[in-house]
Write a structure and sequence with these properties.
There is one protein chain. The protein contains three helices and five strands. The protein is α/β, with parallel strands linked by helices. The protein has a five-stranded mixed β-sheet with strand order 1-2-3-4-5, covered by helices on one side.
Length: about 110
């Protein structure tokens, strides 16, 4: 399995698993996710996880809620608390609002 566990509380995601269900199950299995994947970071935030990112792109700079940045995915795990309460519900609400606006345009 290309993703590896470090302790029970932290997992590291290397952005190379294609099965969405496995990725979500894996991201949901720990309190902290260390990743170099934008989508891994975003999905972990939606799941209410602490997120640490080895940034390689400016797209991480535009995340609504900034993760904790690290220099390398192999850096020592830090107990940084940055989970976002209610982020999944917030995103669902915004998507539903967008859908309603779109539906109005179709009428």
């Amino acid at each position: 399995y290309p993703l590896r566990r470090q302790r029970q509380m932290c997992i590291r995601d290397r952005n190379n698993v294609m099965d969405f269900d496995k990725v979500i199950e894996f991201l949901g299995s720990a309190n902290t996710v260390v990743t170099d994947s934008y989508h891994g970071a975003y999905w972990a935030q939606l799941l209410g996880k602490n997120v640490q990112v080895a940034s390689w792109s400016v797209k991480f700079d535009h995340m609504k809620h900034q993760p904790h940045f690290i220099d390398s995915i192999n850096d020592k795990f830090t107990k940084k608390k940055n989970a976002i309460d209610g982020f999944l519900q917030e995103c669902r609400h915004l998507n539903n609002e967008f859908y309603q606006k779109f539906q109005t345009l179709l009428k």
